[in-house]
Amino acid sequence: MGFARTCSVALVGVEGVVVEVQADLEPGVAAFTLVGLPDKSLTESRDRVRAAVVNSGGAWPQKKLTVGLSPASVPKAGSGFDLAVASAVLGASERIDPRVLADIVMIGELGLDGRVRPVRGILPAVLAAADAGYEQVVVPECAAAEAALVPGVSVLGVRSLRQLIAVLTDEPVPEEEQDAPGRPDPLLAGLRAPGTGETTGMHGLGAAQHEPGHDLADVVGQRAARTAVEVAAAGGHHLLLEGPPGAGKTMLAERLPAVLPRLGRQESLEVTAVHSVAGLLPVGKPLIDVPPYCAPHHSATMQALVGGGPGIARPGAVSLSHRGILFLDEAPEFSGRALDALRQPLESGHVVIARSAGVVRFPARFLMVLAANPCPCGRFSRRDALCECPPSAIRRYQARLSGPLLDRVDLRVEVDPLTRAELTGRGARGESTETVADRVREARARTAARLAGTPWRVNGEVPGRELRHRWYAASGATEEAERQLERGVLTARGLDRVLRVAWTVADLAGHDRPDATDVALALQLRTGIPQGVPAVVGAPV
What we know:
- By secondary structure, this protein is an alpha/beta fold.
- The protein has 3 domains: 3-191, Ribosomal Protein S5, domain 2; 238-409, P-loop containing nucleotide triphosphate hydrolases (Rossmann fold, 3-Layer(aba) Sandwich); 420-540, no CATH class.
- Helix content is 36%, strand content 16%.
- It has 23 helices and 16 strands.
- The chain has helices spanning 40-43, 45-55, 82-92, 98-101, 122-131, 144-147, 161-168, 207-210, 223-235, 249-259, 265-278, 302-306, 317-320, 336-340, 343-348, 391-398, 403-406, 420-424, 433-450, 464-469, 479-487, 492-509, 516-527; strands at residues 2-12, 15-26, 31-35, 64-70, 104-106, 109-110, 116-117, 136-140, 154-158, 239-242, 293-294, 325-328, 350-355, 358-363, 367-372, 411-414.
- Strands 11-12-15-10-16 form a 5-stranded parallel beta sheet. It has a 4-stranded mixed beta sheet with strand order 1-2-4-3.
- Keywords: ATP-binding, Nucleotide-binding.
């Protein structure tokens, strides 16, 4: 009788559970039994592993073989257990010393020829192994850079099962044939989920990385909207841009990612883990260090936005835009159920999806930008009467964005149509992205110094109770906002969000605490009601 064990990782969302893979050989009729709650793709590993072992020069044991995946109560899915199953079988048949395998975590799919193929979720799987105390992992060669992002773990990247056997048995490591330069690598096939390419808006990569020509100086006029974009970037505040087509709403949203600071180390690991599970990591760039930008089409379903789908839940747009921007263009055209499903992640910063196979939790701390036309024809405004939509149609159209959802949006700005003078004028251009980004970084530094030792990173995350009892505005600065609460213009949540925005305005202006001007500008950006202050951060009254 032969017995061996090694380890792999089962992913539940972006969280991993270390699974012990045990192989037991007993006398009897040759059979291969796989137990431990495997799914269909994992059950098929019996044929893949057998062919890979034989084609790698190994002898398949002609005995009763049982492979167990423990703990048996955890659902296990995917082909990432192939390498661990093959190693355990070889250990049980004494081709490999079983003692060598016991403390190694192995992740990878096996081809029939013995080549090791990458799988999705390498980074969160290695993170789970490190958290469980394991120090050695074996991954596909092309995913070794991703696994090496986890500190304190020794990573071995192998291209084939033959190479792994040679390393574990102290034999000469064979050279594997490399594909010719310029040819597509077949080992990377299947990593990217179908229908998630860059043209779909679901790729989640930083817009600053792909569109270096986008600059805020290209936006003509729109002083209030530019101020709102700067405040949103500095404090992580959700933003609604409402105006007619062609006024610049999409231009502003597309330039917002370049204003955001680059991600820190921990934030980069969080974002990379989500994109790794979704199969959306850029080729040759294992670590995402720019804020992601996700712009799904308005026909996206609720599952596409918040995550889900058949079988094991997959991350949706809110998770792909974690620590970045979720841009919903033509927001009233989205499904009402899909939009209202955003309310919970907007408050909590994560998504919990319950399925019969288990509960999955994805991070979803994003900055939401909504762009909306004022009416079905898009020409309704306070300045002219070009709109021909009946009042009832305007009310129905604007009601597609529910009150509870809008109450969670900190900044609401009306983007007016451009005049001929603004569009054709040759005056000074607006501030560049670089100039605004410098101010945003300075404001974020002030915020970080104030919030040091707390679980919050930006003002948009600070609970209202903390703003009322720990960080005070200047004396008398909030009187007008409190009056708006009494009049019913603001809800209690709305007042808290005005205070958050006021702190961001103060950080941008270099004030120690919000004064009456800062609160007035925050109130103006929240309600759209003029408060007698210029729509410029830090400008005098």
